[in-house]
Amino acid sequence: MKNGRDNLTIIIPSHNEGKEVENTLASIRQTAGNEVNVMLVDDASDDGVCYRDVCNKYNSLYYRNDVRMGPARSRDLGVDMTGTPFFMTVDSHMRFYHNDWWKRITDVVASNPEALYCANCKALDMHAEPMANKPHFGAFVDFMGEIEGKVLSPLWMRKDHFPTQELVEIPCILGATYASSKRYWQHLKGLNGLNQYGHEEPYISIKAWMDGGKCHLIKDVEIGHLFRETFPYKVNVGYYVYNKLVIMETLLPDDMKNELYNALRRQYGEHLREAMEIMIDNQAQLQSLHDYYQNTFKYGFEVFQQINSEYMRLSNNL
After folding, report:
1. Which pLDDT belongs to residue 149?
2. Which of 193, 273, 261, 204 shows the shortest CA–CA distance to 237?
3. What burial class does residue 284 get, using C-beta atoms within 10 Å of its C-beta: 0-12 exposed, 13-18 middle, 19+ buried?
4. d(CA 56, CA 161)
5. How far apart are alpha carbons 228 and 178 in whole angstroms?
């Protein structure tokens, strides 16, 4: 099929990212030229940078939220606004390389538009230099926090279990380079329900597996991701925990919930109480999402649990 601007849009949610926005846009244009559309969703930045001018400099679309919505809702807004059939959403601190990444992304998504994909993540420090001993081959979800004490969080797989394959199934996307078709993302209801920051990857990945689309790693496309020690914005822990509850209440079976609530109570204490108050305010939305997923998806949660448990075992020799 024809590649180019008619097919792929790069969506970049951003809040107070400063010079990294320009670095990311420059890297895209230096490696892909004008062969892709680019859209920055400025999530009400207040750091004094004129991001509209930066976008104009790099022939990119610009949209600004009037109030801060968080990366999940900003990504969904970008998908809704794009005029191309396929998209890739990335963070605003990325580096791209001369590896025809945009052609490969377009071809892979076009070959199966009802699935989720992520590129191979190249870990970079804040000087954009490669970090040693940080291979990334997708992720699995550590529901109970057994490994690093992080309940319901994705953990990197450090070993390539299928070295001869360029496109492999993985339990969970990770690395901030996520691609799909606009139609399929909207069919999954994207990241609907999440608020502010946290847990986008487990949420959308579980949904893709339950729907039958699965998640895939494109190993032969490597994209650099700057791993920073602190955020350039404040993270509300209450909403961070609330996003865990969204996953639990809309996707997970009842027999898992009590154990997870107990684990969250031990880990987050008063923040869990705050999250549960937010959940009460949003109960109607969560029930609507739960009903939609139950009536739409082809499989139950066990289809995700099976592959997740297998990769968890392989990655940790369990």
Report:
1. 80
2. 273
3. exposed
4. 43
5. 19
